[in-house]
Amino acid sequence: MAQVEASSRRSRSMIHSAPDAAPISSRHLVLAREVAEVRLREGIYLRFVKPACDRFFSAVILVVLSPVLLFTSIALRLTLGKGVLFRQERIGKGGVPFTVLKFRTMKADRRQERVVVESDRRRTHKSTSDPRHTRLGKLLRSTAIDELPQFVNVLRGDMSIIGPRPELPIVVEKYEPWQHLRHDVRPGLTGLWQVSERGKGEAMHERVDVDLSYCDSVGFLTDLRILLATPFALICARGE
């Protein structure tokens, strides 16, 4: 019996002294368990909670703002003619293209052009100095009303309320491999880039690192902070 106990003690001693088998402390076990719980919560949030909230709130917003949508559609129909919606291909989750919806803000001959004002377009998808914007179009863009049809994209599952803005295929074609990681989540109406100080004064396609920061920290609290900061960011952008 004594020999068995001695052998057992020697075996445990050899295991703990082995260079490739360091003992796992209780602290490490706690940290590993916490990391696993966080990943589980994030997975549940991304797969179930976030999509459900997106669809629910998008439906509510579309109903509540239906008078605004109707009035805008009528005003655009009277000023620009047929086709009140602007459709454009963007890249969504997993690199899958989809058609994003917006209210038209420019004259019909502008819709067929690929690039309008390169100096502005390198900074953002919205060109504020294009002379072909109508007065109504400028108002819609400055108030972000032109983006409201994208709640339909959210209902379809193409987009999320919070997430990286969907990029143009011509921009994504020039991405480095690491930049495609921004497509791990659904694109959004607003995101970290729009409300972050790091994103100010930089081109959207040059601030992929901000989008990747969101992808690494996505969760309920992160989305809530971005959502609460969005109105302030819109007001500040309008005042610039």
TrEMBL record:
<keyword id="KW-0812">Transmembrane</keyword>
<dbReference type="Pfam" id="PF02397">
    <property type="entry name" value="Bac_transf"/>
</dbReference>
<dbReference type="GO" id="GO:0016780">
    <property type="term" value="F:phosphotransferase activity, for other substituted phosphate groups"/>
</dbReference>
<keyword id="KW-0472">Membrane</keyword>
<dbReference type="InterPro" id="IPR003362">
    <property type="entry name" value="Bact_transf"/>
</dbReference>
<feature type="transmembrane region" description="Helical">
    <location>
        <begin position="56"/>
        <end position="80"/>
    </location>
</feature>
<feature type="region of interest" description="Disordered">
    <location>
        <begin position="114"/>
        <end position="133"/>
    </location>
</feature>
<protein>
    <submittedName>
        <fullName>Unannotated protein</fullName>
    </submittedName>
</protein>
<feature type="domain" description="Bacterial sugar transferase">
    <location>
        <begin position="50"/>
        <end position="234"/>
    </location>
</feature>
<keyword id="KW-1133">Transmembrane helix</keyword>
